[in-house]
User: Fold Ring hydroxylating enzyme alpha subunit from Pusillimonas noertemannii.
Amino acid sequence: IQSNDLRTTPAKPFANYVDREAGLISREIFSNDTIYKAELERVFTKAWLFVGHESQVKNPGDFFTSRMGNESVILCRDQKGKLHVFLNTCRHRGMKVCQYDEGNTKQFVCPYHAWSYTTEGKLFGVPMYGALYEEHLDKEEWSLIEVAQLANYKGTVWATWDKDAPPLLEYLGDAKEHLDLALDGLNGVPGDTEVFAGVQKWIIPANWKVGAENFLGDTYHNPSHRSVDEIGIGPSAQSGKKGRRDDELAGAQHVWVNFPAGHGAHSAIQPSMLPYAEAYQDNPEVERYFRQCYEERQERMGDRSRLLPFVGTIFPNMGFNGRQPRSITVFHPHGPMHTEIWKWYLIDKQAPKEVRDILRHFFMRYQGPAGMTESDDIENWQMATEASAGPIARRYPYNYQQSLGQAGPHEMLAGNVSTQISEENPRTFYTRWTDYMDEKPWDHLMGNHDPVFVELNRSKA
Ligand code: FES
Ligand code: FE
Assistant:
């Protein structure tokens, strides 16, 4: 496994940094500046990236400033109601044409020399145009730079800079079923969720892949959260530590599932359609809502309702959490050893005020920069990064041998499935990462040549 310092020379093949069969991954890919810059070029300008949620830009002129890789972009709904994603840079000298996190506007006016752009991205106003530019500047040619493709999946808005990328639905593949568990209403109505309580943003000193990998289903790190579990700060803080989170999982089969394009999830399957397990005894309104949703979902989805969510990652950097508190977490690259985490919370569109209140408090104490769970994770990621970046440490690969050879087909689920805690999800994720870094064609990036999935398809046929 490659371990030399490549801070000045990025060398292909990147496949040398990831030995999937042996379960070894070089520490170099989590700290090397040259590799980081290559990732921005080769991963983040190609892959579909989550940009924001349509509920953040409901009305014409609404915008939300987001990121794709390390670049600022504007998600905006134009005056006719169509969604766009623009690079947030003026075509004159590059100033950000939008300096706000979100808002509503008729035009983006550049503060530097005041060129202005419509919400459709067209260059509209150029000061002293007649006197200084008339003959030379064709406004039609100097629109804001727009992504090559944009797609809306159940309210989540995604974009890619690559016109040759496969359509989003194809890119998500069978990982959709797990992502749906976060995006659908608790009662099973498709995509019946909206963003709630603002976006939390904070910068942590660790590589972006560390967070993306954790959301693939690193269930093995539960010891990190033991203190949180023991004091009982779950969805219903008043009712104590146990409750529905555990009861509805009685006898469940946990699954760690990965997909050819690099996505992965940890979900669980109930042995049969279990009755609702009480969890909010202190709050009858809330209890009624969750019970009703649970029962409606069973009615709507039938046997498929046995599939229950935990977490997942859509390659490269979008994590989702389908259990309360449902959320989307994006790990924006911010340097080889820094990540800007953005967290969106999701809630049923129809959730009543009591439910919103209880979940908002749960979000605050459980997740985010001040939440008790996430601060456990970030302490680990920060110190692991510190202890991995030195010249001696970098010679030694990380161990990814957990449950090697255990994954395979599953009777109920698509994908490569392990029924025991497994590092197969990251093994697939990093294998796909090497394909992007080695600039393979889309067919490879979708994992169509991956021996694991070729074999899986053969065994299913
Ligand atoms: Fe925007 Fe000059 S940089 S108008
Ligand atoms: Fe954690």
